[in-house]
Amino acid sequence: GENVEQHPSTLSVQEGDSAVIKCTYSDSASNYFPWYKQELGKGPQLIIDIRSNVGEKKDQRIAVTLNKTAKHFSLHITETQPEDSAVYFCAASISKAAGNKLTFGGGTRVLVKP
Amino acid sequence: DAGVTQSPTHLIKTRGQQVTLRCSPKSGHDTVSWYQQALGQGPQFIFQYYEEEERQRGNFPDRFSGHQFPNYSSELNVNALLLGDSALYLCASSRRGQGLHGYTFGSGTRLTVV
Predict the structure, then answer these.
(1) Among A35, A13, A12, A11, CA closest to A23
(2) Which of A15, A65, B6, B106 is most solvent-facing, going by the fewest CB within 10 Å?
(3) Is B60 in the A-facing interface, judged by CB distances under 8 Å?
């Protein structure tokens, strides 16, 4: 089955700096790659996603890149703010009509220092 | 518009007991998926229900079972609880045909087995 690895496990950045989180996946059939932010006591919340036919996607301070050949994708957060502090998860899925499931990475705890 | 609601928010059970967790999907959603998130790890897929049937299942033993009702709400049952079943149990809902983009997680039920 699919296996997703995520690095680093913890990341501490100064407010205003950039944060980068990297993930690799094993199943070349995976075609959907979402990123989730999880705050304490809450469920994961989708922040951005990318499909396999796109190499890069941006949404304000957040961007995701995908390299299908190397089977890795990355999350970039620019101009970090204290409210960006949370645990971030990458995930991969094979989107199909019969059903969808997400395989998650182990998570990255991001701390933005004021 | 209410999102995904889960109950209870917390509960404590003794080894060997049975537990039932409940999930009400977001309005307009008809598919419910359950995930187990151990402390410090990413969520792991347990199973998915659509049209009151289990459609996909992850690598979990038969002690984990579920049900979906005609109003699309769902229950997760775990029998013969083990200490290792202690985790945050997340429910995610979606609408068939929309793939994973509309995947919405609840805040979870924190289960502690003592």
Answers:
(1) A35
(2) A15
(3) no
